[in-house]
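Section 5.1 Outputs to date
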Amino acid sequence: MPRNEGPLDRSLRILLGLALLSLVFIGPQTLWGLIGLVPLATGLAGYCPLYRIIGLNTCPLKKQG
């Protein structure tokens, strides 16, 4: 999987994912916080399938070849 997320995008996704996951343990303690797994996983992987579908790439690295 080639990366298609830049460093700022990845950082924001990880922070958002952790914030949403914290809702499971603190705050309203709702399972809706588990939706935070999606941005957390895509942020850690550096790849977003939706970006590929719509042709978006925030990664500053350019493909060579």
